[in-house]
């Protein structure tokens, strides 16, 4: 409650704290931040997040039990209850209405000023003069959706440019999945690539597809040879694959161990095949790693290694991006790192502030963020995964359905607190319910966009009634229909959890209690989503600052400081296509 009431004062405070933003009125995606810039932005974001902690640390499923609407300024509710669905969908992107109160507009605008400017622009051309988006062959495109094609085309082009600059001998695609990026790098650009993933099935899929591609490229190579075409030989080797689990939150030595072992092999193919013959889904054996590599033996392995690597990660989940950055700093033979992070909800976080021996965390990485003393937690990291760009294009009908589902789930959580309090504390997962009902509803009703003006000034709950209720129902019948939905949803949730369902009368009583506040769930969700880009920016700036600190604080002449250059944080992909579009690029001289 106090957090919301301080909004007006906060706006004034933030004006002075965000004075540093006058250096760059709106984040430029091409700007190279100095360490001082990064620290200044992190401090401004921390001040803003602390003021609104009640909002981003909340869990929407607890909306009714924790009475979360009470943490929001009453003036904000006055404006948000009158907002149209389209207003709510555009809220996370920073669009406000002139008629809204100043404190609400200041909240949204401040959040926008602190979030990364995520639209790709001239940044790639500035870093790589003459760079243009490459086009991969139709054969390599097979199996990829439009999003994956967009990502792989751009990222592979960037990696290819860096490969020569960094004088690398091999690319390691970390968290390669089904190997699309690795295959484009190998077949299209002729780069030696190892596709590294924890899942043996992914390696098998990559290998099978690579074999089909090899036949095509071998045939093309023979034709070029017969026609005496003077052109670089086509790489028909394809990427190698390795199955190796880089564990989260345990040891930062595992990825360096993999690289050193890879470099010491005379031939990589037998090594990779041996791992599958052993039936061990963790190449090189977990038993050989745990507790067996000390600093001296690790250094000895590194001195023997003659290879140099680029670590590449396309949406490396959770701690994996953090591990790649640590490995880049730690290992001299890692000449460059290019990583686009993802799944912040899987990050391990040092919440207690005490670093246990051998324990590594994905957040925070930098000393600067550690000194700020702010803990995000799982709910904030979940929120950082939200996409403001996709919210504005989700469509009114889908938005209404999502809001309704959140209200039903929050109502079920209240039921759990009342009748199964121990289970409620564990916040059980019930999956996505109501898909069948939604399909029936879609068939029964004409598309909402053809009957409702999205920009109308009527309240969003009236739009909901138009969209989701059968025609010619009285208000009482509409209420009964919503109540029946809640009973149906709750019964299905109990069944999913293997619990006996409560009597319909008990569930109906709960619904009658919460029904007046259900219309607030959608606006509350949209309001929280405003903070998503700010939280993602906070996590990404922590990673950037971590690399900047290595240059700043590591003594000259030590192994870890050799050749470190200023890292870059750039918008690489179109956020409307790929919401997690920010890449961290660092290259050693």
From TrEMBL:
Residues of the Methyltransferase domain: 147-349
Stretches of the chain forming a coiled coil according to its record: none
Protein name: Methyltransferase domain-containing protein
Organism this protein belongs to: Adiantum capillus-veneris
């Amino acid at each position: 409650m106090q957090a919301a009431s301080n909004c007006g004062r906060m706006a004034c405070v933030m004006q002075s704290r965000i004075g540093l933003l006058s250096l760059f009125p709106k984040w430029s995606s091409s700007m190279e931040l100095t360490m001082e810039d990064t620290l200044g932005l992190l401090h401004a974001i921390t001040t803003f997040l602390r003021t609104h902690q009640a909002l981003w640390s909340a869990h929407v499923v607890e909306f009714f039990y924790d009475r979360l609407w009470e943490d929001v300024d009453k003036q904000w509710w006055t404006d948000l209850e009158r907002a149209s669905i389209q207003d709510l969908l555009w809220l996370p992107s920073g669009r406000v209405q002139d008629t809204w109160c100043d404190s609400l507009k200041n909240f949204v605008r401040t959040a926008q000023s602190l979030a990364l400017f995520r639209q790709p622009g001239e940044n790639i051309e500035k870093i790589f003069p003459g760079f243009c988006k490459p086009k991969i062959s139709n054969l390599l495109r097979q199996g990829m959706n439009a999003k994956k094609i967009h990502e792989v085309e751009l990222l592979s082009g960037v990696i290819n440019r860096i490969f020569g600059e960094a004088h690398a001998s091999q690319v390691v695609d970390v968290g390669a999945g089904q190997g699309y990026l690795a295959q484009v790098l190998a077949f299209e650009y002729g780069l030696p690539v190892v596709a590294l993933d924890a899942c043996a099935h992914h390696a098998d899929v990559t290998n099978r597809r690579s074999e089909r591609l090899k036949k095509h490229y071998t045939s093309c190579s023979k034709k070029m040879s017969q026609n005496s075409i003077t052109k670089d030989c086509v790489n028909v080797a394809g990427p190698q694959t390795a199955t190796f689990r880089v564990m989260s939150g345990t040891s930062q030595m595992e990825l360096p161990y993999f690289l050193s072992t890879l470099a010491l092999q005379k031939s990589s193919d037998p090594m990779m095949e041996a791992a599958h013959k052993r039936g061990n889904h963790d190449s090189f054996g977990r038993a050989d790693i745990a507790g067996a590599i000390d600093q001296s033996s690790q250094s000895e392995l590194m001195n023997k290694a003659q290879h140099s690597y680029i670590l590449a990660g396309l949406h490396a989940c959770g701690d994996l991006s953090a591990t790649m950055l640590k490995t880049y700093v730690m290992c001299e033979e890692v000449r460059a790192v290019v990583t686009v992070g993802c799944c912040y909800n899987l990050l391990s976080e040092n919440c207690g502030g005490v670093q246990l021996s051998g324990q590594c965390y994905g957040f925070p990485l930098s000393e600067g963020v550690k000194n700020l003393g702010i803990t995000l937690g799982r709910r904030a990291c979940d929120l950082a995964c939200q996409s403001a760009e996709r919210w504005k294009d989700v469509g009114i009908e889908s938005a209404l359905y999502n809001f309704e589902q959140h209200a039903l789930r929050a109502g079920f959580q209240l039921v759990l607190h009342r009748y199964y309090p121990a289970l409620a504390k564990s916040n059980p997962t019930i999956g996505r319910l109501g898909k069948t009902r939604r399909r029936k509803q879609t068939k029964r009703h004409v598309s909402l966009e053809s009957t409702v003006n999205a920009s109308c000034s009527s309240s969003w709950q009236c739009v909901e009634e138009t969209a989701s209720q059968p025609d010619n129902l009285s208000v009482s019948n509409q209420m009964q229909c919503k109540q029946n939905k809640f009973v149906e949803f709750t019964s299905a949730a109990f069944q999913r959890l293997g619990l006996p369902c409560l009597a319909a009368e008990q569930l109906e009583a709960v619904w009658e209690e919460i029904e007046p506040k259900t219309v607030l769930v959608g606006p509350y969700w949209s309001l929280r989503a405003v903070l998503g880009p700010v939280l993602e920016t906070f996590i990404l700036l922590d990673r950037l600052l971590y690399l900047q600190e290595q240059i700043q604080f590591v003594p000259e002449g030590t192994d870890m400081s050799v050749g470190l250059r200023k890292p870059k944080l750039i918008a690489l992909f179109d956020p409307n296509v790929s919401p997690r579009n920010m890449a961290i690029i660092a290259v050693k001289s």
